[in-house]
Amino acid sequence: MGRKVVKVLVVDDEPMVCAHLRTILGSAEDIDVIAEAHDGAAAVESVVRHRPDLVLMDLRMPGVDGLTAIEGIMKLDQPPKVVALTTFDADQYVMRALRSGASGFLVKSTPPEHLIGLVRVAADGHTVLSPVAMRRIVASSSDEDAARERAKNLIGKLTERETDVLTCLGEGLSNAQIATKLFLSEATVKGYVSRMLVKLECTNRTQAGLLAYDAGLVTR
């Protein structure tokens, strides 16, 4: 239907999981699973070689794990979007993955009929993480005090309007929804978000949303 084809790299130490994801995603005309890797080191090499738009990254792998791989990928020039794969959504690795630059996470039990749509959402630059899941993950974080202090220091760089936009990001709102809520144009919101990410030293909207929670801008 005219959509750009999303090039996906699947990373999991279980070949059967990779085959399962390849089968599901391959049924969509606008998604192309261009490669798979079975450990973190191979994942970074595959990103360099194949330049995917999106990486589905298992977090718990022997050898070089998914967290280390995400950190390595984020250091590359123009890194792809990365979505963490986990067995359960309370996994402490998820918080570390998000702080390292992952755009969100998916549990491996995600129904096949939902997976394709979520991959498209992530490839478009949106967070694949519900506000409810975000709250639960933040609440379970073991480094809550350090994160709160860092978040408050970073948010001190923002203007009042930028802080309003950040709060909306933490609430899980899209640019269009933020524009409606704050009586701004969508283009203006995009500009605010771009400047905010630089000031907050964030690579994506998910990291910015986490800062909103850490700083107490979003509590419900």
Automatic annotation (TrEMBL):
Residues 7-123 form the Response regulatory domain. This is Response regulator. Residues 151-216 form the HTH luxR-type domain. PANTHER family: TRANSCRIPTIONAL REGULATORY PROTEIN NARL-RELATED (PTHR43214:SF24), TWO-COMPONENT RESPONSE REGULATOR (PTHR43214). It comes from the Bacteria. It comes from Streptomyces longisporoflavus. Transmembrane segments: none annotated. Keywords: DNA-binding, Phosphoprotein, Transcription, Transcription regulation. The keyword Phosphoprotein applies. The keyword Zinc does not apply. The modification 4-aspartylphosphate is found at D58. The lineage of its organism: Bacteria, Bacillati, Actinomycetota, Actinomycetes, Kitasatosporales.
